[in-house]
Amino acid sequence: MGDSDNMFGQDASSGEPEEESKPTAEELEAAGQSALFGGEAEAPAPTPAAPEPYVEAAPSPAAQPYRVLARKYRPQTFAELIGQDAMVRTLANAIARDRLAHAFLMTGVRGVGKTSTARLIAKALNCVGPDGQGGPTISPCGVCEPCVAISEGRHIDVIEMDAASHTGVDDVREIVEAVRYAAVSARYKIYIIDEVHMLSRNAFNALLKTLEEPPAHVKFLFATTEVDKLPVTVLSRCQRFDLRRIPKELLEKQFAEICEKEGVEAEAEALAIIASAAEGSSRDGLSILDQAIAHADLDAGGKVAAERVRDMLGLADRSALRVLFDALLAGDPQGLLKAIDNQYSLGVEPLALMRSLMDFTHKITVAQVGSSGADAPTAEEREAIESWTERLTPGQLHRLWQLLLKGHDEVRNAPDPLVAAQMALLRVLHAADMPDPGTLAKTLEDMAANGVAAPSGAANGSGGETAQAGAQVPAPDWRGLVDRVRNGGQLNLASRMELQVRVVELAEGQLTYALAPGFREDLSAELRDGLSKITGARWQVDLVGEGGAPTLVEMQEAQKAEQQERVKAAPIVQAAFAAFPQAELVEEDSAPGGADRDWSRNA
């Protein structure tokens, strides 16, 4: 075969090169092929070299994506969790005494640390310490594998579920089936269910038995903002912690520390404004602080200024607000309207303006009854509040609060909030000139003591004929007979006896009567039958043309008119009519039965 051609090339003895060499197994593997199929296969045709794809360089630490402050400074230890000392103390004692509940419920407004607390509890229960020999602790180390994995949200035994997107019974059924298995690597298998109130009724029912008697290695941690929506059967199976709103002072301190860590300069007044706008929520406050840092002027070194924060939030400038409040108290309508227009042109919403004035009123009132001085972010505002505290009386402040509160509701519901704010504050301005009820009562007493003449016609009798008719009084038995007829079930007859019958003569078994003016119907037969039925005796009833005592209704009207005249003759009432000529004496509709009313109470 020496002279024969080789299968793969030319004659082996010739010195010419082979036309094509067979690729090796390594080359086939490098090309992504298996060497097992290289026996009869042709070598792959060479392909033109493609340009290398663009690969983005790994970001340096300085180029990492920005994390908002609310996420960056989420509490990693219980020491960093502010404003919840009572809950932390309870958990610390429970861990120290090995009295851990199997289910915890954290409730409170948004941003106070409910989900963060649940994750901290998971770390506290599963921490093994730096040496791997530790047990449950209120101060997790943060460096062991469970602590790091839980912080990064990748621990296999800490399952966090959002109930808002997993509301059905099937989602809960998966939990019920999984709790039977022990934890893979942690001490406890922990289920964190956020916004647990979003679970359906059937989902809650499916969870009840497992929640009541879970395995020893399972802990449930629930978080919700609407605890009232949870069934009582769930609440009774959990250890509940009500997370409080974070005080404004703690929020200011937290924001100041974060600004220092971030290398941002911020005015104390600006942080106070942000803390007030946060309404006790750390997350809301950090979001506003994040926005304020971005809103700060670069030419000022990125300093967070109070004026810029007010512009950003649409709040009133405190100095301009003090000018408006002064105009309100001084009764200056032109200055008041000018101050309102000035604030509105700067972007301050009318509703925010009303809230700011209410906040001023509240601070003045609290400073009046407190001993720690005025609560104000600046010395100028503190001085102004102390000045108003000396000028205004408690009664004026409370009336001012009521007027502003009513104006706030009107502005919120009005089609034009600016016009509503102007009208509401003008009403407050004019109401400031009116005396308070205590001062008015004292003034009327002084006027009565000094002998103020009654207004013209105030003491004149308005029912002369009726009063004269009241001089004649029927026999006292007539009213008793009417009451007996009414109690006997003859209500219609009793009403007609009160309204139409003027008694001329009343004796045993005999009644002579006349009809009141305006009535013509003869009631003799009806009266005879009714009185006979009530008394059991025969009655003689005669109708005459005129005369007789007034009817019972006429007597009541006469007594009422007489009582009114006595009230009008009282010195303090005459003084009131002299001070308010257009006033009227009004009877209370809710007072019982006409003649028994005490008109002196209505004066």
Low-pLDDT residue spans: 1-20, 32-45, 47-59, 452-476, 590-603
Assign the structural class, choosing from mainly alpha, mainly beta, alpha/beta, alpha+beta, or little secondary structure. alpha/beta
Gap from first CA to last CA = 142 Å
Radius of gyration: 45 Å
Largest sheet: 5 strands, parallel
Question: Beta-strand level of the residues, as a percent range?
Answer: 5-15%
Number of helices: 25
How much is the average pLDDT? 78
- The oligomeric state of the chains shown is single chain
Which term fits the overall shape?
flat
Helix content bin:
40-55%
According to DSSP, the number of beta strands is 8
Walk across the major sheet and give the strand order. Answer: 2-3-4-1-5
List the helices and strands and how they pair.
Layout: H1 25-30, H2 69-72, H3 85-96, E1 103-107, H4 114-126, H5 145-151, E2 158-162, H6 169-178, E3 189-194, H7 201-212, E4 218-224, H8 232-235, E5 239-242, H9 248-262, H10 268-278, H11 282-295, H12 306-313, H13 318-330, H14 333-345, H15 350-369, H16 379-391, H17 394-413, H18 417-431, H19 437-449, H20 464-469, H21 476-487, H22 491-500, E6 501-507, E7 510-515, H23 524-535, E8 540-543, H24 552-569, H25 571-579
Helix pairs in contact: 4-5, 6-7, 9-10, 10-11, 10-12, 13-14, 13-18, 14-18, 15-16, 15-17, 15-18, 17-18, 19-25, 21-22
Task: Please name the defining characteristics of this protein.
603 residues, alpha/beta, five-stranded parallel beta sheet, three-stranded mixed beta sheet, 25 helices, disordered C terminus
